[in-house]
Specification:
Layout: H1 2-11, H2 13-17, E1 21-24, E2 64-69, E3 90-95, H3 96-106, H4 115-137, H5 144-170, H6 175-184, E4 190-200, H7 210-232, H8 237-247, E5 258-263, H9 269-277, E6 283-286, E7 291-302, H10 305-329, H11 338-341
Antiparallel strand pairs: 1-3, 2-3, 4-5, 4-7, 6-7
Helix pairs in contact: 1-4, 6-10, 7-8
Length: 360
């Protein structure tokens, strides 16, 4: 967040440079930096910028937290100089309220900001002010490029803030919405407690001779059949896993058989269909991949609402954001002149993601 904030500060340098007040000492002509927006009204409770274990600084909102000496605001008239206007008579201050408002505007997720991070942002902000005033003195604000960039940045900023507003609005669905979603999507929260026996299809011993490998191939299918039959009778899966390795003279440690509670989406579609089409106590087998997988559905259960509440909130949030995006985009249709833009690019063919363990 801090890196993003500092980058954003540089992007909106001109707009932010209008915020602080600038004064001159007695004997010099007072000059104020032009303000693009009214000075923010102090909030009753400024946002906290401290870690939870830190005590907040006892500073009033109007207390100056940055004092910049030697930087004078440039005029917004046509360029007369390429130099940074700097004199010892100028002084610019940023109050706690102004800096808190700056941080709050970019810290849309309300993350904690440590004093060290806050100092880094303050130093970056001062550098923004220096270059911003130099740009004004050079007439950058009157250039066509500046006007066009600011036009686009204004659109982007408005769009980003609108998205943030929608996110805040959709982030906390009502308890009734959560319960309705849970009732309407019971199958999503159905789970199956699984056990699995893995029998390698080929001899896993890298030192095995050709004769030993051939003997393994002759035995492995029969061993898998026998183990599957015993599993269907309800024998202990851990013992069956060890028996399989012993029968095939596999020296390595047998894998654990407890897969825990499996939910929809945790396995490839073919395996998932097998899992949820079998009743508790039933066994099925998959011989695809690197070995024989013998699964047993030990029990089935539906996850309680409280254990999946966070997941439901995310799903409702995603649905609302997608629905709003569709609502905004569906009535809009843009046509592009192919003589100018060229023909549309062919859609990229994306391969479906491959699960880390194909036959889990």
């Amino acid at each position: 967040m801090i890196r993003r904030l500092i980058i954003c500060l540089f992007i909106v340098s001109t707009a932010l440079a209008q915020t602080p007040g600038a004064t001159k000492k007695q004997g010099s002509t007072a000059t104020k930096a032009p303000s693009a927006t009214p000075t923010p009204t102090p909030q009753a409770t400024p946002p906290s910028l401290l870690n939870r274990d830190e005590k907040p600084a006892e500073l009033p909102p109007d207390a100056p937290v940055i004092n910049i000496k030697g930087l004078c605001p440039a005029e917004n008239s046509p360029a007369v100089s390429n130099k940074v206007l700097s004199t010892n008579d100028c002084s610019t201050t940023v109050t706690k309220q102004q800096f808190d408002n700056l941080v709050k505007a970019f810290n849309t997720n309300n993350q904690n900001v440590t004093p060290a991070q806050r100092r880094n942002m303050g130093q970056s902000y001062v550098e923004l002010l220096i270059f911003s005033e130099a740009a004004k003195a050079a007439g950058i604000e009157n250039s066509p490029a500046f006007i066009e960039v600011m036009r686009v940045l204004r659109m982007k900023t408005a769009g980003d803030l609108y998205r943030n507003q929608l996110a805040e609005q959709y982030r906390n669905p009502s308890q009734q919405e959560i319960e309705d979603y849970y009732k309407a999507n019971q199958e999503k929260f159905e789970g199956a407690k699984l056990s699995r026996i893995f029998i390698p299809a080929s001899d896993p011993d890298p030192q095995a001779t050709a004769e030993k490998k051939a003997d393994y191939q002759k035995k492995v299918t029969q061993v898998a059949d026998d183990i599957q039959a015993r599993a269907a009778k309800g024998e202990d899966m851990s013992k069956l896993q060890k028996d399989a390795y012993t029968a095939l003279a596999i020296a390595s440690t047998p894998p654990t058989t407890d897969l825990g509670l499996a939910r929809h989406g945790a396995f490839p579609p073919k395996i998932e269909q097998e899992i949820f089409s079998h009743k508790a106590g039933e066994v099925f087998r998959s011989d695809e991949g690197t070995g024989h997988m013998i699964y047993r559905v030990d029990s089935k259960q539906t996850s309680p609402l409280e254990t999946v509440k966070a997941e439901i909130i995310q799903q409702i949030f995603r649905q609302k954001m997608e629905a709003k995006t569709k609502e905004l985009n569906s009535p809009v249709h843009a046509e592009y002149d192919e003589k100018y833009f060229g023909p549309p690019a062919a859609p990229m063919q994306l391969k479906p993601p491959v699960p880390p363990n194909k036959d889990r």
